[in-house]
Amino acid sequence: MKPELRLVPHPVGLNAEFYAHCAAGELRFQRCGACGAWRHPPRYRCAACGSGEWSWERSSGRGRVFSWTVTHRAVDPAYEDELPYAVVVVELDEGPRLVGNLRGGLTPAELRLELPVEVEFEPVADGIALTHFRPSRA
Ligand SMILES: [Zn+2]
User: Which of 33, 36, 74, 100 sits at 20 to 30 Å (Cα–Cα) from 2?
Assistant: First the structure.
């Protein structure tokens, strides 16, 4: 019998806050209170200006495919049924790049650079939702 154990993040600190927003159905990134720069992954200081002031700002969840990789052989048997699958790096309209699985019926062979996509969430545990991307509907 195939194990149903898939890896689930166990984030702490700022990363836990990021995943909690996703679990609430909102994609939010930190935005610098001094210079307005968006950032991800979460951190305490702005890489652009060094400020420690920031807030969680809501992203449109829309962006374009920046890069991807296709997995043809499951390292973890829990993912065998999804082969081949693509993991995409998406540059959101606000600037940050985010990694997620490709969803929405698109096959890895149909991927292309700059493809418009939007985020969707998969709740996997209390306070944790994973981010996936599907072709944009607009
Ligand atoms: Zn800044």
Answer: 100
pLDDT of the residue at 134 = 96
The pLDDT of residue 3 is above 90 = no
Tokens of 67: 């890069």
| Between residues 56 and 6, the one the model is more confident about | 56
**CA 28 to centroid of ligand 1, rounded, Å:** 17
Distance, CA 54 to ligand 1 centroid (Å)? 8
**CA of 13 relative to ligand 1 center, distance in Å:** 20
Cα of 52 to ligand 1 centre, how many Å? Answer: 8
CA of 42 relative to ligand 1 center, distance in Å: 13
Cα separations in angstroms, 32 against 2, 44, 49: 45, 10, 9
Q: In what order do the strands lie in the sheet with 38-39?
A: 38-39, 28-32, 54-58
